[in-house]
């Protein structure tokens, strides 16, 4: 944002304050001055000159030897421009001048043996335009020797200020002047009072209908008749040029002037081109296309806000007017628009159309809704003064849904605690009032404030504390050598993912990272995708619903360069629509997932091993290995599906309890063909959130066995109808504490025993963790157990 110092001085008393002080104070107050253009310094040693004589250079056909009157002397200057001639008034760069365009320092120099004492300048070299066809030729009213900063009014200082998104009020000279008034405790030199004549006359000439007040809460209109469209006066063109805008004509220049002054964008329609002299503010609905002022056809969407007459659209609200209603040289009557549009609506349309204008830049950040009538009245007065127009009495001010003002309470002790030092109540009051806050009440402990409508960023007490701090000066916060502060425990939210990465890398996997954007076709396979409002291309129009398509793109690129044996994993977020339309965060879901991909050969062919291809069990084993870090294998449930779906030939799901945490399998050839992959690919996708929520498996230390085991074997003859599980249950029910383990090691059914009998042989391990057991103790417990089995199943020991 370019801000003119001379313009600021018209608004607030800045006498006795240097450019450096202003720059420093603004920067420390949050309005960073990124650059300063000091015009008197920039054009030092450039003066008005008069070519009194011209002759050809004796040693160069294309050079001219000129004698130039510089005011106090006549100097020889060699010029190469084809249009130079005697009697012309020109711009002369004297010795020591620095050319603005290329920073070349002008020195005395001999050119083909003749001395030249300066340079006759073109508009290009001066930075006035891109015209470098010849020198600047001025009218004869300029006096030779006059510094051009004085002759052209180039006596200003231009600040380039970086405005943060939360400060739309600073996108105007009035907004910056307001901060300077508070920073330097200087009074405003001008006040803006709304002087609207109450009259019904305008309502006979124009009508305004707001059909979508949620997107256009306020719309003001003025009518000016019999204007004369022509070039703007010099003072107006200079103000616009210094602020970085190009003059167009007096009508357009006035609207831009008011925008730069107050921060309120305006738009002038040719009144006679509006059907039925009516303005309708509505959503685009069925409108498909609109031709804007720049001659480009813009594709519309149903929720884009339009300004229409009674038949057709005439502007895209808050962004740009239409070719069908623009002001021409023949325009006689004007309808002036001054409105407040919902920032979100303007921002969405502007970003989608890739169309950013000075108006949209302000509207999408949030302008002052109470400024619209004042801006319209100021502009209408200028139309009468500069364009010779007749302003119709009255103003149309449609404001169906009045935007409520905000109130905030501020406590003195809160200011002291946040800033770390005391500020006098009178100083706080002065700062707040100069910034536009109204003090509603005071209780000695603080103020109840009315927040100015031009500050949409002020919502809470802390915001007001920040305002007081930045104006009083953050540099005044005292230095403190030591601060005592108790910190809470640190929670590393990335440690679990890092452990998973380390584990998979140890298994031979490589991590990949893919973008979150996909085509509609790729994203729709795995769920209903979320569409981006301002996508860069059709290939990146939707947020991914799965990590698999991105991983397959990586596989395809690797195979294309000969890397066919791959073990890959990725950790990333996926997105899926929950409801038909996104109105808040509950209408879509975001999940963090991990994908594993196997393709190619597990083992290469070597002298000691055969070539082996990755198979389903490799994938399942790696998944189990990963999950075993969090839970026991017996707690996992695997469901297998031999019949596949649109993506998998066959697949399986992994569940913990009743919760499915992932699925995967072998991808179908038809799906792989979409990615130009002609080899088998195995993939699984797991929900990382579900894995993280699992309680960490606790590893317990078990002391090494100190005392010897005693082994006993027993072979039992038992009825064939008795199940092995029944025998196991019987042993468990009758075993003693010293029986630590048992297992079946032989099962015989054959000719050597009865056909209804089977022989089962078990081995039993006995030991005590506190002492050495005797054979007698073990024999007693063992016999008792065998007796229990024999009694229950009518069994007998083999050999009895």
Question: Explain this structure to me?
Answer:
With 800 residues, the protein is an alpha+beta fold. It folds into six domains: 2-40 and 157-184, Phenylalanyl-tRNA Synthetase, Chain B, domain 1 (2-Layer Sandwich); 44-151, Nucleic acid-binding proteins (OB fold (Dihydrolipoamide Acetyltransferase, E2P)); 201-398, Phenylalanyl-trna Synthetase, Chain B, domain 3 (Phenylalanyl-tRNA Synthetase, Chain B, domain 3, 3-Layer(bba) Sandwich), CATH 3.50.40; 407-471, Phenylalanyl-tRNA Synthetase, Chain B, domain 1; 495-693, BirA Bifunctional Protein, domain 2, CATH 3.30.930.10; 710-797, Alpha-Beta Plaits (2-Layer Sandwich). The strands form eleven sheets. The protein has a seven-stranded mixed sheet, sandwiched between helices. Strands 5-4-3-6-9 form a five-stranded antiparallel sheet. A five-stranded mixed sheet has the order 11-14-17-18-19. Helix 6 runs antiparallel to helix 14 and helix 13 (412-419) crosses helix 15. The N and C termini lie far apart (106 Å).
- Low-confidence parts lasting 5 or more residues at pLDDT below 50? none
Q: Please identify the oligomeric state.
A: single chain
Q: How many domain regions? A: 6
Looking at the overall shape, the CATH architecture of the largest domain is 2-Layer Sandwich
Report the mean per-residue pLDDT as an integer. Answer: 90
The rounded Rg comes to: 42 Å
Q: What's the N-to-C terminus distance?
A: 106 Å
Largest pleated sheet: 7 strands, mixed
**Helicity, as a percent range:** 25-40%
CATH 4th-level superfamily of the largest domain: Bira Bifunctional Protein, Domain 2
* Count of beta strands: 40
The largest beta-sheet arranges its strands as 26-29-30-36-35-34-33
Given this structure, which CATH class of the largest domain is correct?
Answer: Alpha Beta
Structural class comes to alpha+beta
Global shape = elongated
Number of helices: 23
What fraction of the residues are assigned to beta strands by DSSP? 25-35%
- Tell me the CATH topology of the largest domain: BirA Bifunctional Protein, domain 2
